[in-house]
Amino acid sequence: MLSLHFNKHFINSLKSNTKLVTYLSTTIALMLILLFHGLIQGNLKPEFFAYALFVSAAFYIWDLVDHKTRKLRKRHAEVID
User: Fold this and answer.
1) CA atoms of 39 and 53, how far apart (whole Å)
2) Under a CB-based contact definition with an 8 Å cutoff, are residues 58 and 27 in contact?
């Protein structure tokens, strides 16, 4: 019963904030790939995880800025027309 309640709220939160969920799931997937690669190759370094977090955050910020500028550009074009 508890897991059904948790799943319902978890799925609803995923549906409401798709961009954040996309970047978080991508970050988690990247971390897992780095972990598996590091375990197989034997060269697991903490710096790789820091780089992955930095790159994921940079892409998320880039998406936020791009979304805002496109919205402003569209609004500006509507005012001119």
Assistant:
1) 19
2) no
Residue 44: φ, ψ to 5°: -75, 120
Would you give the DSSP letter of residue 42? T
Taking residue 30's Cβ as centre, other Cβ atoms within 10 Å add up to 17
Tokens read off for 48: 């790789």
pTM summary value: 0.58
Cα dihedral 71, 75, 76, 80 sign: positive
- For the chain, what is the largest distance between any 2 Cα atoms, rounded to a whole number of angstroms? 60
d(CA 44, CA 37) in angstroms, rounded, equals 8
Per-residue pLDDT of the chain (81 residues; tens, 9 = 90+): 556 666 666 666 666 667 777 777 778 888 888 888 888 888 888 888 888 888 888 888 888 888 888 888 888 777 776
Q: Are 56 and 34 in contact (CB under 8 A)?
A: no
